[in-house]
Design goal:
- The chain has six helices and six strands; from the N terminus they run αβααβββββααα.
- With 154 residues, the protein is α/β, with parallel strands linked by helices.
- The chain has a single domain, classed as 3-Layer(aba) Sandwich (Mannitol-specific EII, Chain A).
- Strands 1, 2, 3, 4, 5 and 6 form a six-stranded mixed sheet that branches.
Length: 154
């Protein structure tokens, strides 16, 4: 599964405004619900927060992938955002997070959720990809960077 096939241009925010872990999750859920016209915002937010409370999704390398499954969505949805100054996210390596991918998918369907997480993991382990994302100043450049990385690394 390609990330570029699952993320809309309107689902990318170049300059996240939040300055802490919980607010950035809230901001990303707002983006998710707005761009995909999802009307169960609070249920989605609570699913993400519950998952995050169990274990941080700050995977290291300045990346976080908050995610959850919930019965209120019909398929996998993805949003992304950049926080160029970084946000303390309780990452495994202690570094601030600058690149976020938030995923939500139906509770009873595992395949797309796991494939999306695996695809993101394979991409973000490449320093060149992470650095290129942080240099992007337009959504169009982010999409192009993701597509090029998918061709190269997946």
């Amino acid at each position: 599964m390609k990330l570029s096939d699952k993320i809309k241009k309107s689902a990318i925010k170049l300059d996240l405004q939040s300055d802490n872990k919980w607010d950035v999750i809230d901001e990303l859920v707002d983006l998710l619900c707005d761009c995909y016209r999802l009307n169960q915002r609070e249920t989605i937010l609570q699913a993400i927060l519950k998952r995050e409370a169990g274990q941080s999704t700050g995977v290291g390398m300045e990346i976080a992938v908050p995610h959850a499954k919930t019965p209120v969505v019909d398929k996998l949805y993805v949003v992304s955002g950049l926080a160029k100054n970084g946000i303390d996210f309780d990452s495994v390596d202690g570094k601030k997070v600058k690149i976020f991918f938030l995923l939500v998918s139906p509770r009873d369907v595992s395949g797309p959720h796991i494939k999306a997480l695996a695809g993101i993991s394979r991409l973000v382990k490449h320093e060149e990809f992470r650095a290129s994302l942080l240099e992007c100043d337009t959504v169009k450049k982010i999409i192009k960077t993701v597509k090029e990385a998918e061709k190269r690394y997946l």
